[in-house]
Design goal:
alpha+beta; 3-stranded antiparallel β-sheet; 4 helices; 38% helix
Length: 149
Amino acid sequence: MVYRSYTQNYPPAAMSILTDTQIKVRRHEILSEMQSIREMIRGKISIQSLTRTAADGSVKERGPYAVFQRWLNGRNHSQRIPKAELPAITRAVDGYQRFVQLSDEFAALTETLTQRSGPLLPAKKNSRKPLPTKNTAKPKPSSKTPFKK
């Protein structure tokens, strides 16, 4: 499935040129598109082939196999996907990737609106001049002072 990527058409520098109304309309479009995503699963699909050396020394290749991988509870889980299920899982993985793209774009647009509304953080105060460092080294003897015995 091919998706229209709004952020590719409008890089962050160009997003500041958009009017507030255009940004609000795009945010609404993003939310509608997010809501229309029906299938979503976190993870990725990779293709694996296995090579095996037989007892007679011949090399045999098995595969390719589609493998679905994802992190769950801090661990990597891998699972082979039957060919019949591959299109559905691919759509679900693509759905999640699109959701992440849309949420990143939504955050960038909202951030632009927030920055336009005025300063959120107080201006940085002028820093004080650094205090002179204390000289802890022994003073060198002066040649002008009389030498006492």
